[in-house]
Design goal:
The complex is a heterodimer of chains A (691) and B (79). Chain A is an alpha+beta fold. In chain A, 43% of the residues lie in helices and 21% in strands. In chain A, the strands form five sheets. In chain A, strands 14-18-19-17-16-15 form a six-stranded mixed sheet. Chain A has a five-stranded mixed sheet with strand order 6-8-9-11-10. A five-stranded mixed sheet of chain A has the order 20-12-13-22-21. Chain B has 79 residues and is of the alpha/beta class. Chain B has a single domain, classed as Transcription Regulator spoIIAA. The termini of chain B are far apart. Classes of the chains: A alpha+beta (691), B alpha/beta (79).
């Protein structure tokens, strides 16, 4: 994508975020002059920037929005709820268009109609647009083409942050007779950035008149508008000017908040605004460059693990050399770890932008559902790896939609049960060691475990007996089961096909967990906990027969040895008791359908008791893993060391293989399959949920 | 300005005026194979530049007008 457009997208998102933040604040304090001013500037700058590209509907919408904001600023309009709502719709639309442009390079289909509708709404507030100086702002249709003649020069100039002005000078054809020399005027313009000169009409094949000026001169410069006016004062009717609104006023929050603050510093108050000159301390770096660095560090970690392997071998062959190498390896290990931390810190972004977007979507959705919802966020300054933040967006969106659609009741129903008419949804983020925990709480109807059980029974999600044995927490957890939905009707908002099971799937794919708590009549809380960064994962190596597999350590609650006689048949499976809790036990070999699974624990357990006099069989080595509210014991043949690996997504033949998270390259060059135990368990019919 | 033809090269030298455009055009139209050497030219008049833009003769060496050389060379060379 062209550099200028990329820059526009980055700034556009910042400005959208700024504008919506201001508008939300205005909704609470309608007369807040600072907010009005800030929102006006954001919209104005956006309008200016969009004028550089050929996105006319967007430009026109922003123009109309700017008129409204201008009227607000001048006190001609009052920021009432309707007006703020209409402005929010504009900003939401712009946000959507920016995303469309990011995806496809152009405005999404339907933008025209939407823009027309929004413009109408804006005009309803600010009155029909008056005729503007055609040389200004978005009306300058010639501007994109001029800038396109030298995008590189323009991007470099725009990056300085100084104001730029573009001029289109169409000398009168008879100007030579009057003694004009248009180029002489151009020579007087200071600080030129782009000059483009072209015929006004195509050159005639013959009969070129040397004394008729057939030129259009376009240029971009850092010159002040007044200087230009002076230079062109005698030909002012032949000149159009456009100020170029690429603004560097708004520094992306993630850059600002990182300044002088250690990565992952405590969340809390909003990031401080930069003082003058703060820009010199920050760099805006294309995320792909950081990604490339992160990939290299990933390779380095693999190489480092390989070194550890070599040191081990050398220790046997030549102990003295091995020790020296070992000391060196420790040093390298430390440096690699530091480097890894450094690169990861550079990828850290705050949740501010995502929260802002969710905020708009909640408003939008609430409006469509006809529900009044107070939405509050906290902890937006919490930082996480960019990929984590990106990965959280869809799941959170879904959880929030669900809260609005199925959680918060209609105002009448709320009033009838003695609640405030407006529902309340809070979105909170906080850091807990190396995880970020995001909590979505609503004060809606909550969920009734008995009803959940009934629904599960009706849908045949599991055997009656097992269903009866589920406790309340496990019943709530059912909402994450594929095919489960508590709403009696599939609504437009929550949609069909994507359920909370998709939320759990995506969060677990990130190495995170989703849990739910609900009190009937009082509301529901969904909690997402994900690692702050996903790039390097600690896995515990396990063995089945001669095969090794990796299990991400983060899902392993503990590893235990269970004496064979403690393993008992329960229902059609087996289980053991750990600290007074019955935990179902399955063999990893069975889950993986491995050849080593010829023996079956179900038969084995009773056999063992019968053969008690035989030489005691070794204790079962068990990983206790947590998936949702559920604990499950996974028996393996052997447990080996924990190592840090970079998990690579499955590719080629393995792509889409279920039950595998990915592969990791080990120090000895072999490939480790990293298994997705929650998925394997969810899949296994006889140990589905509950024991 | 002096507009002078030497073999097949039109030499432009010194500062130019609007009238030079007519001479330049005539020389260039006389033989389409002629090229232009403006290395010794002073500041070019817009009318002269317009002829160069319209006819696009091959240009020998850098233009003696630094402004034209810096800002218009790509336009004069663009096919």
């Amino acid at each position: 994508m062209d550099e200028l457009l990329e820059q526009f997208l980055v700034e556009g998102r910042d400005l959208v975020e700024q504008a919506s933040e201001d508008l939300l604040a205005l909704e609470r304090v309608p007369g807040d002059a600072a907010r009005i001013d800030s929102a006006f500037r954001a919209v104005h700058t956006l309008k200016g920037s969009v004028g550089l590209f050929d996105f006319a509907p967007m430009a026109a919408t922003l123009h109309a929005a700017e008129d409204v904001m201008g009227a607000l600023r001048d006190g001609r309009l009052h920021a009432d709820r309707d007006l703020v709502g209409a402005m929010m719709q504009c900003i939401s639309a712009v946000d959507g268009w920016l995303e469309g442009i990011a995806r496809s390079g152009g405005l999404p289909p339907g933008a025209d109609d939407e823009a027309r509708r929004l413009r109408g709404a804006m005009h309803a507030f600010a009155g029909a647009p008056e005729e503007k100086n055609p040389a200004r702002g978005v009306e300058a249709e010639w501007l994109p083409a001029l800038l396109a003649t030298d995008r590189q020069a323009f991007a470099a100039a725009a990056a300085t942050g100084r104001a730029l002005i573009a001029v289109r000078y169409t000398p009168d054809p008879a100007c030579f007779f009057r003694g004009d020399d248009p180029l002489a005027l151009l020579r007087a313009v200071p600080d030129l950035v782009i000059v483009h000169i072209a015929p006004r009409d195509p050159w005639p094949a013959s009969g070129l008149d040397p004394f008729a000026c057939n030129l259009v001169i376009g240029f971009v410069s850092f010159a002040a508008r007044d200087d230009l006016r002076r230079i062109f004062q005698l030909v002012v009717d032949q000149v159009a000017m456009a100020e170029i609104g690429v603004s560097r006023e708004v520094v992306p929050r993630e850059v600002v908040s990182r300044e002088g603050v250690s990565p992952g510093a405590a969340s809390g108050g909003p990031p401080a605004e930069p003082e003058h000159g703060a820009l010199t301390h920050t760099l805006r770096i294309d995320a792909s460059r950081i990604d490339a660095l992160a990939d290299l560090v990933g390779e380095l970690i693999v190489a480092k693990n390989r070194l550890a392997h070599l040191v081990g071998q050398t220790m046997h062959a030549a102990p003295a050399l091995g020790r020296a190498l070992g000391a060196n390896q420790v040093e390298i290990e430390r440096l690699v770890a530091d480097l890894h931390r450094g690169v990861m810190a550079a990828r850290m972004v705050t949740l501010t932008q995502m929260f802002g977007r969710l905020n708009r979507l909640v408003r939008d959705t609430a409006g469509r559902l006809g529900k009044d919802v107070h939405f509050e966020t906290s902890g937006a300054a919490t930082e996480a790896d960019k990929s984590v933040v990106d990965g959280l967006y869809e799941p959170l969106l879904h959880v929030l939609r669900n809260a609005m659609d199925h959680g918060v009741e209609q105002a009448a129903a709320r009033a009838a049960s003695g609640k405030a008419r407006a529902g309340r949804i809070t979105l909170d983020a906080a850091r807990a060691r190396d995880r970020i925990v995001i909590t979505v709480t609503d004060d809606g109807a909550g969920m009734d475990p008995a009803r959940l059980r009934e629904t599960a029974r009706r849908r045949g999600l599991m055997a009656e007996a097992r269903l009866d044995a589920l406790d309340d927490a496990a019943l709530l957890d059912l909402v994450f089961t594929p095919g489960f939905s508590t709403a009696s009707a599939v609504t437009e908002v929550s949609g069909r096909g994507v359920g909370l099971d998709a939320v759990r799937r995506s969060i677990e794919a990130m190495g995170g967990r989703v849990t739910i708590a609900s009190t009937p009549g009082a509301g529901t809380t969904v909690r997402l906990a994900v690692p702050q960064a996903v790039t390097v994962t600690t896995v515990i190596m396990v063995r089945i027969g001669d095969e090794r597999f990796g299990v991400p350590l983060e899902i392993v609650a503990e590893t235990v040895r269970i004496a064979r006689d403690q393993i008992r048949a329960v229902g059609d499976g087996v289980a053991f008791v750990l600290r007074e809790r019955t935990i179902p036990l399955v063999r990893l070999a069975d889950l993986l359908d491995s050849p080593a699974s010829a023996r079956d624990v179900r038969r084995e357990a009773p056999d063992l008791r019968a053969l008690g006099r035989d030489a005691p069989r070794p204790d079962a080595k068990v990983l206790v893993i947590e998936a949702g509210e559920q604990r499950t014991g996974i028996e393996v043949d052997g447990l080996a060391e924990r190592i840090d690996v970079v998990i690579r997504p499955l590719e080629g033949l393995l792509a889409g293989a279920r039950g595998l998270l990915g592969t990791a390259l080990l120090g000895d060059g072999s490939v480790l399959m990293v298994v997705n135990l929650p998925e394997l368990i969810a899949w296994m019919p006889h140990c589905n949920i509950g024991a | 300005m002096a507009v002078r033809l030497d073999r097949n090269i039109v030499h432009l030298s010194g500062p130019s005026r609007v009238e030079d455009a007519e001479d330049l055009l005539a020389l260039l139209q006389g033989d389409r194979a002629r090229s232009v050497d403006a290395t010794a030219s002073g500041d070019l008049h817009t009318a002269v530049v317009q002829i160069l833009l319209a006819v696009r003769p091959p240009l020998a060496g850098p233009c003696g007008d630094p402004f034209v050389e810096r800002w218009l060379r790509p336009a004069l060379h663009r096919a």
